[in-house]
Amino acid sequence: MRLDAGPVLRTLRRQPAVFTMLVLEIAAGVATLTALLLSASWYGLIGAQHSSFDEENLLLVSSYTPGGDEAALVASQRADLARLRAIPGVEAASSVSLSILDARWIYPALFKSPDSKRRAVGWPAFTDDAAPRTLGLHAIAGTLPPDAGGDDGGAAREAYMTICLAKALFGSPANAIGRFVESDQNVPVRVRAVVQNATMRIPFMPHAGCVLFIAGGAPVGHEAQVYVRTAPGARDTVQTRVRDAFAGEARRRWIDVRSLDTTDSQHVRVGHGLAAFLSIIGALVGVNAQLGALAATSFLVAQRRRQIGIRRALGATKADIVAYFLVESGFTMLAGSLLGLGGTVLLFLMMRPFFQGLAVDVGAIAAGLVLFWSATIAATLVPALSAARVPPSVASRSL
Amino acid sequence: MLLPYHLRLAVRSLRRDPGLSTTIVIVLAIAAGIFCTALMHYLRTYVGAAPALPASLHQVEIIRSHEALEAAFVGTNAAPNLVAARQRVSFPMYRALAASGLPTRQTGTFRARVLAEREGSPASCPRNARFVHADFFGMFALPFRFGAPWTRQDDAAGAPVAVLGGPLNDQLFDGADSVGREIVVDGRPFRVVGVIDGAQPFSPEWDRSITGGPQDLLYLPFAEHERLLARPESPISDGPEGPRYADLLASRTTSVAFWIDLPTAALRDAYARYLATALGARGVRYELRDLTLLRHALGLPKSALNFFVFLTFLVLVGAGLVASRLYLAKGLTRRGELSIFRAVGAPRLSLIVRQLLEALLLSALAGVSAMAVAAASAFVYNRLVADTDIPLVVTPLAFAITFTATIVIGTAAALYPAWQAAARRPTLMRI
Fold first, then answer.
1. Using CA atoms, how far apart are residues A92 and A232, in angstroms rounded to an integer?
2. What's residue B387's pLDDT?
3. Does A256 touch chain B (CB under 8 A)?
4. CA torsion angle for A123, A124, A125, A127 (degrees, to 10)?
5. Contact (Cβ atoms closer than 8 angstroms) between residue A394 and residue A386
6. What residues in A contact B243, CB-CB < 8 Å?
7. CA of B372: how far to CAs of B38, B61, B130, B298, in Å?
8. Same domain, A183 and A100
9. What's the whole-number mean pLDDT along residues A38-51?
10. Pick from A139-148, A250-259, B69-78, B233-242: least confident
11. Which residues have a Cβ under 8 Å from the Cβ of A74 and sit 6 or more positions away?
């Protein structure tokens, strides 16, 4: 079998329009397929984001208590917290105003400090003194406040922030300690510690891991979210106990007890759903490309039946004929892919404003190219094998 | 008239290469279906399907800095949320705007979560309730399946009345006429006076920032929010407020959208004078806009949807290139026939027209078939993604645009092959 590019180049030169069309078609296919795979991969990554807590030991108890008396609402929520803390197997429980499982839209805050010229976007989470223990937060810098039994109400007492916010606002975790931070959602509050990043908002929202935990200062409302830390390995048992403890209240108010399991959250369903959906669309683009390649090679075979006959009469083997079409297909694929990768770069630049943190995913690009090449080569082989069966006698039929 | 003649020949040509014709239709239909899917998303977000609303609807924007939101959202996929900051006002500002007594119709509106169930049923989960005035339903032309909106007298008397969204009526009353029945909202009884027909528009004119989110399920009189202590959904703070509900009502936190109907120039002028006194004199910067200006000034910013529409259009163009090569193959298989046509006197133009007509027929078939692909794609999207409770559906506008784009691209794809096939020399010899 000879892989001779000469005849291929001559054919391409004879039909520049067809060649150009083919290259453009491949370029469009490669660019659109890789862009679809890149966006699918981005949504997949969003769907894979985790709260960063040890979720296997955490429950989230959400409640809605109706009523027009704010004092009664506060009392009811405090009583709930006390009841939760008393359930066997519960190690700690805290009221926290944010949760990664809450898909509702809320607005972030722009944090600033009199001690820094920088500003940073993040999320204030109003909580109580038990939150560090409940959430399993560790101080990276400074010291976490002791659990003095303070609740999430009243004036804001002190705060601790995630590394993400500390770096954005003060340059480093160490620089944040002792500084005051304020925003349009919270009064100035002193930072006691910097803790590990924790995703407290659905990851589709910007800066979901930049959080300022504030002890106290929570607004009064019907809704409350309580994180419950269970004894290791006892989450499911405790979940049942909590449900039983509140079972009699379903007619009066709403209480939802669930494990803090991000794999069962809306952002995971939407992220994975979009990734799967875009992959299906990508597969359809691939099917179209395959149909195009199949038709193109069939067209070339039909057009060159006599030429193939002559080559066969002059001694070309069946393998030579197959190789000829594969080289031709490979040549156009190469040219189209290179142009397509240029298109991918342009599409990538267009995507960046809408896909925060979108990175060049070499895997997705390679997958796009491999898919496209495999589909096209498979589609070329069918008519190429048919061409190889053209007998040498075809060369003399029109003489 | 040669057109019917050419059309007849084009149809005959179609039948002669069923394999190639079918491939062209499939390739174009798949690509057009993909394009239509992105277009459906785009149209429901940016264009909407709401009935035409009068341009006499007005809103007042209180002009202020949105530094925090801009820092968070500009250049991101969340940018549409900035619209809320400009469409909504604080409670004190709402009260000032609503006190003129001038507009023929006016409504304040915001959304909050409440517990709403049938009498005696256990609480299932908090639901989205929109607090509005009686005029709201007429101003935004909401269609009623059963009953009617409550009246201004009901508003004035503080009557406990409610309008159910179609989906909530389906959930609570199995879709039956629930007018006159009672529901319990946060433990208080409300009488159902009307049921909205169908789902809420995906991008509701009354609050475009909730585009893409779950829909309004229940409408309650605006004044009820104070009795229910209903905290507005996604408030935009302008400084720390106190913890109590009264603190929110007195704060500069942006929560309420306020709409007014000013159908005459005299009314508009009068309201402008009122604003100059009530706000201008206090140094508040504001802008009064009618619906046309409002849509122009506060349109939803670009999002990933714009990108996907462009990307899928590229897919359609790529399919056009595939179709082009398939048309070339068609021309090749018919070279003998075309040469004979040329030999018996057919001008080149007639051969070109015939092939373009054939392409037009194929593209039309692909455009219609694309709807099956788009419908299947919408079904898969609604099952796989389900990011909102308003399902994605193929709309007449999406169909019209997709069909036109398919026809244009499918026919344009045949231009070069038609020209090349018609350039064949006249001959009677079998080639």
1. 12
2. 83
3. yes
4. 170
5. no
6. 153-154, 217-220
7. 15, 44, 36, 35
8. yes
9. 89
10. B69-78
11. A153, A220
Closest to A292 (Cβ–Cβ): which among B75, B325, B377? B325
Are A60 and A203 in a shared domain?
yes
- The answer to whether the beta carbons of residues A321 and A4 sit under 8 Å apart is no
Phi-psi region of B137 (alpha: psi -120 to 50; beta: other; left: phi over 0): alpha
A105/B213 touch (CB, cutoff 8 Å), yes or no:
yes
Kindly report, residue by residue over A262-279, the tens digit of the pLDDT: 988 888 899 999 999 999
B211 touches chain A (CB under 8 A): no
What CA–CA distance (Å, rounded) separates A366 from A386?
30
Give the end of a domain, one of A262, A277, A298: A262
| DSSP per residue, A296-320 | HHHHHHHHTHHHHHHHHHTT--HHH
Given a cut of 70, is residue A177 above it in pLDDT? yes
Distance from CA of A359 to the nearest CA of B (A): 15
Residues A162 and A184 in one domain: yes
List, for residues A222-248, the tens digit of each pLDDT value: 999 999 999 999 999 999 999 999 988
Return the pLDDT at A323. Answer: 84
C-alpha gyration radius of chain B: 29
How big is chain B, counted in residues?
431
Q: Examine the domain organization and report whether A202 and A278 are in the same domain.
A: no
Q: Tell me the C-alpha distance between A384 and A371, whole Å.
A: 20
Q: What are phi and psi of B102, to 5 degrees?
A: -90, -50
Residues 276-305 of A with CB under 8 A from B: 276-277, 280-281, 284-285, 287-289, 291-292, 295-296, 298-299, 302-303
- Nearest-CB residue to B322 (from A17, A221, A295): A295
In contact, B406 and B363? CB cutoff 8 Å: yes
Question: Domain boundary at A262, A281, A315, which?
Answer: A262
Token representation of residue B155: 């508003």
Mean of the per-residue pLDDT values for chain B?
Answer: 88
Please say if the pLDDT value at position A395 is more than 60.
Answer: no
| Nearest by CB: A273 against B20, B72, B386 | B386
**How far is the C-alpha of B426 from the C-alpha of B336, rounded, in Å?**
9
**Which B residues, 141 through 200, put their C-beta within 8 Å of a C-beta on chain A?**
186-187
Question: Are A43 and A102 in the same domain?
Answer: no
Task: Examine the domain organization and report whether A69 and A209 are in the same domain.
Answer: yes
How far, in Å, CA of B412 to CA of B288, rounded? 47
- Closest residue in A to B22 (Cα–Cα): A291
Spatial separation of the C-alpha atoms in residues A339 and B314, rounded to whole Å: 14
The two tokens of residue B45 are 């977000």
- Tell me the pLDDT band of B431, cut-offs 50, 70 and 90: very low
Find the length of chain A: 399
Residue A109 tokens, joined = 């805050």
CB B397 within 8 A of CB B47: yes
Instruction: Please give the helix or strand (H or E) that residue A126 lies within, else none.
Output: strand A116-127
- What is the model's pLDDT at position B49? 57
Looking at the structure, tell me whether residues A246 and A282 fall in a common domain. no
Range(s) of the domain holding residue A374: 5-47+268-396
**pLDDT at residue B109 is higher than 90:** yes
pTM of the model: 0.86
ipTM of the complex: 0.84
Annotate A183-229 with DSSP letters as a single string: ETTEEEEEEEEEE-----S-TTSTTTT-EEEEES-PPP-SEEEEEEE
In what helix (H) or strand (E) does residue A90 lie, and over which residues does it extend?
Answer: strand A90-95
Whether the per-residue pLDDT at A21 is higher than 90: the answer is no
Are B187 and A66 an interchain contact pair (Cβ–Cβ within 8 Å)?
yes
Check whether residue A326 and residue A344 sit in a common domain.
yes
The total domain count for chain A is 2
Question: B310: closest CA among A284, A50, A32?
Answer: A32
pLDDT at A9 over 70: no
